[in-house]
Each structure stands twice: as C-alpha cells, then as structure tokens.
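Pipeline run #58 for the internal structure catalog. This entry was flagged by the ingest filter as a single-chain record with no existing model, so it goes straight to prediction. Upstream metadata was stripped on purpose; only the residue string is passed forward. Reviewer on rotation: M.T. Logging verbosity set to normal.
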Amino acid sequence: MYTLYKIYYNDYCAYLGRTKQPIAARLRGHFFNKPMHKNINIALVSKIEIASCKSQADMYLYEVYYINKLKPPINQDDKAHDALTVELPELKFVEYTPKLMDKWREEIAKKETAREQARLARQKKLILTGLDE
C-alpha cells in the first residue's frame, strides 16, 4: 500500500509524509524520534489524515505536489520557493487515529516527566555542591 499522510497541529498541516509501511508504524517512528523519521511532537498533534495512492510513482508525485501546495512548516525537502503552476486531481484524505495514540501520548509524557525530574535533580546537586565549597 502506498500512503500519504498529513499531520495537523491545530487547524494547519504541519507535516506531510509518505510511506509503504503500515501507517501506524510510520507514525510511531515520528513520535518516538526514530532514525530516518522527522520528529513530530505528539502533544501538538490535533489530527492525522491519510490517502492511498495506486502506485509508488503516484505517491512520490503527490508528496511533492502537496508539500508545494500546502507548504507544511516541518517539511524542508522538496519545497520550492515559488508557486505551483499545475493542478493534480485531489486525493481523498480521511481522518485516521492510531489505536495506540493515547498509549503513545502517555508513554511519551512519562519519559518527558522522568527527563525533567532528572534535570531538576542535577540542578539540585549542582546547587548543593556549590554550597559545600
């Protein structure tokens, strides 16, 4: 399957991607900052939409087309500085919510809390060490 996906922050498309792998696996890679994935802040995600393409070539073409049409801020590659002069038939995007989205949000929030606690503990240690001198 050849899939395009849009990740929204509030009401705007923040990122547009493509994948041949299962969409949930691809999204997990973005949210958990895996190699070869653009890091996406799961806490800011308001909506995800997906569309299927008939071929890999169509998927590549539509990815570049939509990046240049929508100008998602997280996308850096394939973004031209001028406007499109062609129009392609619109793909039908449908809203998609991974079954594990809530679990992923909780898991990431716990990791961030643990990181923050470790950072505060290091600061406290530095302060206390400075007081001993």
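catalog note: The chain has three helices and four strands.
catalog note: The two ends are 64 Å apart (CA to CA).
status: ready for reviewer M.T.
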